[in-house]
Write a structure and sequence with these properties.
Its cofactor is Zn(2+). The protein is α+β, with helices and mostly antiparallel strands and about 375 residues long. The protein has a single domain (about 20-365), classed as Ribonuclease Z/Hydroxyacylglutathione hydrolase-like (Metallo-beta-lactamase, Chain A), CATH 3.60.15.10. It has helices spanning about 35-50, 70-75, 115-120, 120-130, 135-140, 145-155, 175, 205-210, 290-300, 315-325, and strands at about 20, 60-70, 85-100, 105-110, 140, 160-165, 200, 235, 240-245, 245-250, 260-265, 270, 345, 365. The longest helix is centred in the N-terminal third of the chain and has 19 residues, at about 35-50. It starts with 17 loop residues before the first strand and ends in a 5-residue tail after the last strand. The model has no long low-confidence stretch (mean pLDDT about 90).
Length: about 375
């Protein structure tokens, strides 16, 4: 397999943003996991205080992309007693706009998944092959496309500065970034849909993708990166503030280079990632999902992880607690936090016992573009 860089080459790529001294990469600490957990809470509290002073972006808008099936045993790791083997999750894109200190407008797309090409991720491709077409059509619902949503919001593709994902599972970026060679499966050499955009990604994840571990292989499409120009990526090490009220926080565990979006809005601080798939997974004591509250109480677990890959489970747990500490309480229901899963648990009649107790559904901040 060819890849545009090896682990050592990633260090030569440019970076972006202002580093956050308050948050360290605890996955690299020599301390025991329990000590790292205590440190994560303390660091999150300190960062909350300073991040709130950075301001707010101009607008935050949520755009639904696709609802699809996902194994219950992955999404509600060990805790669920639902009879349904699958639950449904809705993938959503967040569009964030702000102005830099010099007045320059910026646009960030968080989770702008190419849904059509993402289906060829080995796990989902294998699942689709085993699922009758009539059943798949009932379980998979497309709501809109990345480019369609941007057109509706009045944003041109060449207005977009940054693309960001919490991690690169399922992502095929060839149509977004273009390629340097003809792609046989696409019968074309794609031109970049976002000609100015750079992908903000943890350096750890790019390095890891150059030589995947067997536990990682079902969830990545590394071959699709072989002809993507390396200069389209902006690797970062750890956490950064990208703009007023916009931060990228490293939250390793789900994958080694996992990262979360943190935004400050008119309702307070929101956090988004796929470390958990429901807001109630961060306050499971308030969940009415079968088994969740009892499991959390019995095992003294304060979060319920999303665990399709368990690269470093203790680190993922600690990252989820860090996210939990950063997020403000929901104004709609203060039992739950302003944590917005990048893939949010969605009720469906086909999946009994998996309808969430509480769902955000969307985030809206500022005046939406016409």
């Amino acid at each position: 397999m060819r890849f545009p860089w090896g682990p050592g080459d990633v260090a030569d790529l440019p970076t972006v943003g202002a580093g956050v001294d308050t948050l360290s990469d605890l996955s690299r600490s020599a301390e025991p996991p329990g000590v790292r957990l205590r440190t994560a809470r303390a660091q999150a509290r300190a960062f909350r205080a300073e991040f709130a002073l950075t301001g707010t972006p101009d607008t935050v808008v949520t755009c639904d992309l696709v609802t699809l099936p996902y194994p219950t045993r992955f999404g509600l790791f060990r805790a669920s007693r639902a009879i349904a083997p699958f639950l449904s999750i809705t993938n959503r894109m967040l569009v964030i706009r702000w102005r830099d200190s010099d007045g320059r407008p910026r646009v960030l797309l968080f989770e702008p998944s190419d849904v059509e090409l993402g289906r060829y991720t080995p796990y989902f491709d294998n699942l689709a092959r085993k699922t009758p077409g009539v059943l798949e059509r009932r379980m998979v619902r497309e709501h809109g496309t990345v480019l369609g949503h941007l057109a509706r919001l009045g944003i041109r593709p060449d207005d977009v500065d940054y693309l960001m994902f919490d991690h690169l599972h399922t992502q095929d970026l060839r149509r977004w970034l273009g390629t340097t060679a003809h792609q046989d499966d696409l019968d074309a050499r794609p031109r970049a849909a976002f000609p100015r955009a750079k992908v903000v990604v943890q350096r750890d994840e790019l390095a890891g993708m150059a030589e995947l571990h067997p536990l990682q292989r079902p969830w990545y499409q590394p071959d699709t990166y072989r002809d993507v120009p390396p200069e389209a990526f902006l690797p970062i090490d750890g956490s950064i503030v990208l703009g007023p009220g916009v931060a990228v926080v490293k939250t390793p565990g789900h994958v080694f280079g996992n990262q979360s979006l943190v935004v400050n809005t008119s309702t307070g601080i929101w956090v988004s990632s796929e470390n958990v798939i429901a807001a109630e997974a961060l306050t499971p004591e308030h969940s009415r999902l079968p088994g969740i509250a009892k499991w959390a109480r019995g095992w003294q677990q304060e979060v319920v992880l999303n665990a399709n890959t368990i690269e470093t489970t203790a680190d993922q747990y600690n990252s989820a607690v860090l996210e939990k500490t950063l997020a403000d309480r929901s104004q709609a229901d203060p039992r739950f936090l302003q944590f917005f899963p990048s893939s949010e648990l969605t009720g469906a009649w086909t999946n009994p016992g998996t309808t969430p107790t509480f769902s955000h559904g969307h985030i809206t901040h500022g005046v939406q573009p016409v």
